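Chapter summary example.
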Amino acid sequence: MIKVSILYPYRENGRFDVTYYCESHMPLAAKLFGPALKGWSVDVGINGGAPDSKPPFVAAGHFVFDTVEAFYEVFKPAAKQLTDDIPTYTDSTPQILISEITVDV
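The structure predicted for these 105 residues follows.
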């Protein structure tokens, strides 16, 4: 299994609409990805580790697939629609991390 994480860096005075992201953007992605998508989640940054510190990321969306190839197969046809929606909820430039899930308890 692999996880595709879309990480949105925290910026002072940056804009990120968590409600829209959770209720519209991520469900849209899930619909477009169809049965190849094994699960998805959203994390909202609250702290950077040290007391009263800012989080390094304001939010992260995660998608789980069987393989990297399975992800690319469904992402390529949906890419334009999903990337065109980014300005609707943020002025941040996302970073992408694709990782192998080695432990899941």
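To summarize the output: The chain has a mean pLDDT of 97.
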